[in-house]
Design brief:
Order of helices and strands: HHHHHHHHHH
Number of strands: 0
Largest sheet: none
Number of domains: 2
Number of helices: 10
Shape: elongated
Distance between the termini: 56 Å
Helix content: 55-70%
Structural class: mainly alpha
């Protein structure tokens, strides 16, 4: 996968990057970074990612100004995919309590299916991962997809739901049925109450 020079070192710039639109290169870098994150976790270095991309770190920094920017871009893209999956799963559900409970359950399942994200949610990495999740598009996605009650999304409620999701990803709640029951009993009522309070 890595382009090599004749002497066996990583090429300074991958051939596929030449004559390719910047946005297409960035898309591919994010995709490759996802593979690296799956293997090494959220703390994979820019050097690790550059090696997988097949370019120098200097070239990688021309496309992303740092690891955090690249992490946030990756999380934002995954958040959009997960948001679409959640929306499809709860489409047509009129009961706000059922909708919210199922949205959280589906979000948990979707994150666990994403190899890079699953690697991030370990007890050792939970702090930095939750910080990334709370500073990214996950909050916006949660506010609009999970928490729209009468057209009124709640940012604070979204942040709290994300903290619950992160907690359950790091310390799962037994079986999926157990998690669903905990969410329905303890999370959904308090979140909906906070959204409907004037």
């Amino acid at each position: 996968m890595r382009p090599m020079t004749e002497n066996g070192g990583v090429a300074q710039r991958a051939d596929w990057m030449r004559d390719t639109r910047r946005s297409a290169v960035q898309d591919r870098i994010v995709e490759i970074a996802g593979d690296v994150f799956a293997e090494r976790g959220a703390d994979a270095s820019m050097a690790d990612i550059a090696a997988a991309v097949g370019c120098s770190r200097a070239t990688l920094y021309r496309y992303f100004d740092g690891r955090r920017t690249l992490q946030l871009e990756y999380i934002g893209r995954v958040a959009r995919r997960i948001g679409a999956a959640v929306e499809a799963a709860v489409a047509g559900e009129a009961d706000p309590a059922v909708r919210l409970t199922e949205a959280v359950v589906v979000a948990l399942d979707q994150v666990r299916r994403e190899p890079a994200l699953a690697a991030w949610f370990t007890p050792g990495g939970a702090g930095s991962t939750s910080e990334l999740a709370l500073s990214s598009e996950f909050v916006e996605t949660a506010a609009t997809t999970f928490l729209s009650v009468g057209g009124r999304p709640g940012q604070d409620a979204a942040r709290w739901v994300i903290r619950v999701i992160v907690s359950l990803l790091v310390v799962p709640g037994g079986s999926p049925a157990d998690e669903r029951a905990m969410i329905a009993t303890f999370v959904t009522p308090s979140v909906l109450a906070s959204l409907t309070t004037t």
